[in-house]
Amino acid sequence: MPTYRTFKQHLDPSCKPKRILALDGGGIRGLLTAGLLRRMEDILRARAGGDPAFRLSDYFDLIGGTSTGSIIAAGLSLGMTAEEVRNSYFTLGEATFKRSLLRIGAIRQKYDAENVANALKDLFKDRTLASGDFKTGLMVMSKRLDTGSPWPLSNNPDARYFKQRENSTTIPNGEYPLWKVVRASTAAPYFFAPEKIVIKTGDSKRDLKGVVGEFVDGGVSTANNPSLALVLMATIKGYAFNWEMGPEQLLVVSLGTGRKSLDAGMSEGLNATSLAHAMRALSSVMDDCGELVETTMQWLSQSPTAREIDRELGKVEPATGGAARLSYLRYNVSFKADWFREYLDLDWPEADVTALAAMDEPKNMPKLDQVGIAAGMKLMKEEHFPAAFDLA
To answer: Does residue 227 contact residue 295 with C-beta atoms inside 8 Å?
Structure first.
């Protein structure tokens, strides 16, 4: 059986090569990701010699997620199995998306954020980002709404704001409660209230006021698919990971929660109102960000799973005359009946497939579970994972 890296070795840039797992946002559709994870865990366990104690945290040196992906990422980084993640999702889904006639979404958020907070507290207890039982690196993507800045938070002890600094009233990131950081990443506007995190404590002697940040879903940024954000975190000096790039030095595995059709059609009736146009435009911007991240990741990498971005670009490859900067695997499904038939061998009615795109429908969980399992078996191949990244 292989000897697995310690937490310190996972983050140490001298322990090479490095492997990153990136998990998209998507609400209840995270259950689809859980199915992909089970297939990947089976493949990588076999590659590691069949050790029944193997976890994805043994293979990946950094696991990051946005929104629902942050819940999964945090669980995996603590050593949860893919099956444990799946089981937790059924519990979280029912607890989180409880409808109430008192909440219609226009005046008050559609769901009670306290239900999410309580579920995450039950899952992560009193852990902080500095807790000693992390098995590997973790990044949680959120958006600080009051300053308009994306906040990728990690458990890297070398990060600039992770520890207490001399003469500073800023609360170290390492002291942030894990449940609160994840809750911030899942605070999707309209669905849930923002999460408040104390950034600085007040100091009356120095006439310094306290600062509280208001955080919302990390998907309200360019990183609902956090794969590029994770590459930047791992390789830009300011984040203090300092990992090396190269197709045999850095592997990124990216898991989606399903792609809905981007064809919105022409505006008619209520869909032609200014509010409807504004909401469609905002949704379109988020979709564009997702497409740009995938395009950029393919442009940087060598990838056996690259998909056709559009009819003009086709499958994007590294810049002309340039070399791949990393290895990249991307797995996702498209919520279209013909796609389900062609790639998953699932002959489902178009209406049933389209309905799965909802982010807040617990009744979809059994079908999403089925789709995730089918996608794992049909799309994910053992030979996709480069031998250069096998556990030593």
So the answer is: no
